[in-house]
């Protein structure tokens, strides 16, 4: 069973159960499913499909967890990026993986990574239109 299949099965079994906790923030399986589906539609619109690599540079928070699940739902794969790595290492990783898009969680990281990759956005920019997207999984 693939991770996405397991998650959707689990979400259907207990949609109101808590799926993620980070500090005081919590998401139920239903909330995580809907957010990830909406984000997956936005990623698809940005060109993320089967086996397309998305670089992710962000903290371990609910938004990053949502993004990782959304990338998988869109059919893509993710490349975790450590902002403490030197530019040359990040450039090499992005190039070697054939990264299509990089998503960061702040403007400072976005500005830095934009010098290393032509297609960089922030979580805020990517999800500006989040609430207008369908809550169902993309085809």
Outline:
The protein has 139 residues and is of the alpha/beta class.
Describe the model.
This protein has helices spanning 3-13, 29-45, 62-74, 87-97, 107-114, 123-126, and strands at residues 18-22, 25-28, 53-57, 77-80, 99-104, 120-122. With 139 residues, the protein is α/β, with parallel strands linked by helices. The strands form two sheets. A four-stranded parallel β-sheet has the order 4-3-5-6, with helices on both faces. Strand 3, helix 3 (62-74) and strand 4 form a beta-alpha-beta unit. The protein is globular. The mean pLDDT is 95.
Average pLDDT, all residues: 95
**Rg, alpha carbons:** 15 Å
Beginning-to-end CA distance, first to last residue: 18 Å
Helix and strand content put the structural class at alpha/beta
How many helices does DSSP assign? 6
Count of beta strands = 6
Order of helices and strands: HEEHEHEHEHEH
Contiguous runs where pLDDT drops below 50 for at least 5 residues:
none
Roughly how much helix do the residues carry, as a percent range?
Answer: 40-55%
Per the principal axes of the C-alpha atoms, what is the gross shape? globular
What does the largest sheet look like? 4 strands, parallel
In percent terms, what proportion of residues is strand? Answer: 15-25%
